[in-house]
Design a protein that fits this description.
The complex is a heterodimer of chains A (266) and B (291). With 266 residues, chain A is mainly α. Helices cover 69% and strands 3% of the residues of chain A. Chain B has two domains: 238 residues, Rossmann fold; 44 residues, no CATH class. Classes of the chains: A mainly alpha (266), B alpha/beta (291). At the A-B interface, helix 4, helix 8 and helix 10 of A face helix 2, strand 6 and helix 3 of B. Bound molecules: adenosine-5'-triphosphate and magnesium ion. The site of magnesium ion has 3 residues of chain B, from helix 1. Chain A: This is Transporter.
């Protein structure tokens, strides 16, 4: 079950999306994230859907695989939808179930918010699927560089992120191994009351934590042993290069931002 | 406990770009009361096969019959839970699964899960600790304060406490010094000899161990069973040895060296130091290997 989680995974490929500069992808995603929530006009949502679909299709990732990996996250989308559906009290009453009432405003709000979240999740997942963790971190570090002038430790921040991303798959496999080892000793994770199920995870969490601490220590030692001493003066083996296609993509997202802003103001 | 594996295939993450066909059409029988060794190159599917035998993974195709339970692609978790009651599994680096506040609690985890009361579980735990050679004084210590070797023993005790009929071991001696390896293996041999129907199934890269301990060897290659048989029947197969899929145990290497030196036909199937010495002594008496 856990092997289908896509967050933090990278699928190698040569598609247009794969070859974009990570900075272009990150900046575009950032614009998308902000301006998707600025306007709730149909044109804007439509344009966002088109952008997302185009990115997904041109990334050359099997849709079935993508669907399998994201369907767990869809629970969050569904949850958001229902929260808005029941908690917004605007417009006409459409339906009454006991103490709960569904208003037309709630239905609309549920759709809009759920849809935005869905698009955002798809695009963000796509970013990690098509960008190696190294590229991603380089991109983030490069975009954050201005902040380092005001003494924000951007290099350390980027490093922390890349380590975290790097170890997500490791943690997942490890969780699975430990779960299996405890299941072999009769642990049952899918039976009994909610409280019992939660308790059943303790024998998994404790070894997982103890191993993570050990690994963190080993990693720190290994890095120090190889002379790592922070960001100052460090050069890079791989340089990022901004190409024409990156400008084009970024301009498309800029246009989207403009559209969103225009419908809001106009 | 006898296990029959029939036409089993297994694919990790089927239907995606990361799909790995780890087992292909595997058919093999593990007889009751014997020691079986699964050997093969890294990535050949040994660990996967072991996890299927315990119902931790379900076969994508085919079926496994273990002590009256049948495992197929649509077996239910409840049945698998009942099946596991009689099968102990020691994972690679089992010390990583220790979690409880005391060694005793950790060893009692299995019996308690299978419905024993605390008193019975405690009795079983002390018995298992004794079998693994851990002094009872360690029982109240935190497992995280033990030495590496002691941790491994504690973890093994946690599996033995289930009083299984079949033990599955995934490289039980990995990362131990030679003495430690010897002791751990002796522990398992002793466990097996206590009762006639106790079955031992281990994955190993150690050919010396395999040659000395196994009654039955299964050689895996790229997710398939390449061949199986007794140590003597395998290590006399020149095709396998020449191809390099079956490394020789040390005793056989020495005999092979002597045979090549004297241009005699190879006769390398002596797997204990004593047997090899006898063989050499008889050659010396006669003058030459096989002369
Ligand atoms: N959890 C997993 N997810 C995806 N693929 C896996 C997983 N576990 C194993 N595999 C793959 O399945 C194949 C068989 O792996 P398996 O662990 O059974 O090999 P093995 O014979 O035990 O190797 P080793 O001697 O290195 O332990 C390998 O190609 C491996 O990469
Ligand atoms: Mg293995």
């Amino acid at each position: 079950m856990l092997e289908h989680v896509l967050i933090g995974q990278y699928v190698p490929g040569r598609s247009v999306v794969h070859r974009l500069d990570p900075r272009a992808k990150l900046a575009s995603l950032f614009l998308f994230m902000v301006f998707l929530f600025v306007s709730r006009e149909l044109v804007v949502l439509g344009a966002a859907a088109v952008l997302t679909a185009a990115a997904l299709l041109s990334a050359g990732i099997s849709l079935r695989f993508f669907w399998k990996g994201t369907r767990l996250v869809l629970i969050i989308v569904a949850l958001t939808f229902f929260l808005h559906l029941f908690l917004t009290q605007e417009g006409r009453v459409l339906l009454e179930i006991g103490p709960l009432a569904v208003y037309s405003g709630g239905l609309l709000e549920g759709f809009v918010v759920g849809f935005r979240l869905l698009l955002l999740i798809v695009l963000a997942t796509l970013l990690t699927l098509t960008t190696t963790p190294v590229d991603l971190t380089d991109g983030i570090e490069s975009l954050l560089r201005p902040l380092s002038y005001v003494r924000v430790p951007t290099h350390e921040f980027a490093l922390m992120m890349s380590i975290a991303l790097r170890f997500i798959p490791t943690l997942l496999t490890e969780t699975q191994t430990i779960m299996k080892a405890q299941m072999a000793r009769g642990a049952a994770f899918s039976r009994g009351s909610v409280w019992n199920r939660l308790k059943a995870f303790l024998p998994v969490l404790i070894p997982l934590f103890s191993q993570s601490f050990k690994r963190a220590e080993d990693l720190a030692t290994a890095m120090e042993a190889r002379g790592y001493n922070g960001g100052a003066g460090r050069t890079k083996y791989r340089e990022l290069s901004w190409k024409l296609s990156d400008t084009l993509i970024f301009c498309m997202f800029l246009a989207f931002a403009g559209l969103s802003l225009w419908t809001r103001i106009g | 406990m006898q296990i029959t594996v029939t036409n089993v295939s297994y694919t990790y993450m089927p239907g995606g770009p990361f799909a790995v066909e780890a087992l292909r059409d595997v058919t093999v029988t593990f007889a009751s009361g014997e020691t079986h060794a699964i050997i093969g190159a890294t990535g050949s599917g040994k660990s996967t096969l072991l996890q299927l035998l315990n119902g931790l993974e379900k076969p994508s195709e085919g079926s496994i019959d273990a002590g009256g339970h049948t495992i197929t692609a649509d077996s239910r978790q409840k049945d698998l839970f009942d099946l596991r009651r009689h099968i102990g599994m020691v994972f690679q680096f089992p010390e990583q699964q220790l979690f409880a506040e005391t060694v005793l609690e950790d060893v009692m985890f299995g019996p308690l899960n299978y419905g024993d009361d605390r008193e019975t579980a405690e009795k079983k735990a002390y018995r298992a600790l004794e079998k693994t050679g851990l002094p009872p004084s360690l029982a109240e210590r935190s497992p995280f304060t033990l030495s590496g070797g002691q941790m491994r023993r504690a973890a093994i005790a946690g599996v033995l406490a289930l009083e299984p009929k079949l033990l599955l071991l995934d490289e039980p001696t990995a990362g131990l010094d030679p003495d430690g390896q010897e002791e751990i293996m002796r522990l398992f041999s002793e466990w097996q000899q206590e009762e006639a129907d106790r079955t031992l199934l281990l994955i190993t890269h150690d050919m010396n161990l395999t040659a000395r301990k196994a009654d039955h060897i299964v050689l895996m290659e790229s997710g398939r069973v390449r061949t199986e048989g007794t140590p003597s029947s395998l290590w006399t197969r020149e095709d396998l040895i020449e191809e390099g899929v079956l490394p020789l145990p040390e005793t056989s290497r020495i005999l092979a060296g002597l045979c090549t030196e004297s241009k005699a036909p190879p006769a390398v199937d002596a797997f204990t130091v004593e047997d090899a010495a006898d063989r050499i002594a008889s050659w010396v008496r006669k003058g030459e290997p096989d002369a």
